[in-house]
Amino acid sequence: MLSISPTYMLYYVPLIIAIALVFGATRHENTQLVLQHAWQTGRWITGFMAVIFVVFLFLSWMT
Asked: Which residue, 24, 27, 47, is CA-closest to 37?
């Protein structure tokens, strides 16, 4: 089984920040609202990726 180095997980943080800020900035012009929306979007993306991770982890335990 191929494992991913933990250093590759460091790419996750700037990627989520960039996606969340761009998504928030396309919805609002006020900086406070952009940051609030970016925070909410970042939590949703992180939650979604955690669910996918758990599913893949469960599937790897099944095999």
From this structure: 24
Counts of helices then strands in the chain (DSSP H, E) = 2, 0
Q: Hey, what are 5's tokens?
A: 């180095």
- What is the pLDDT confidence band of residue 40, given thresholds at 50, 70 and 90? very high
Evaluate whether 41 touches 19 at the Cβ level (below 8 Å).
Answer: yes
Residue boundaries of the structural domains of the chain: 12-62
Tokens of 41: 């979007």
Under DSSP, the state recorded for 30 is: S
What's the pLDDT tens digit per position in 2-39? 566 777 778 888 999 999 999 999 988 899 999 999 99
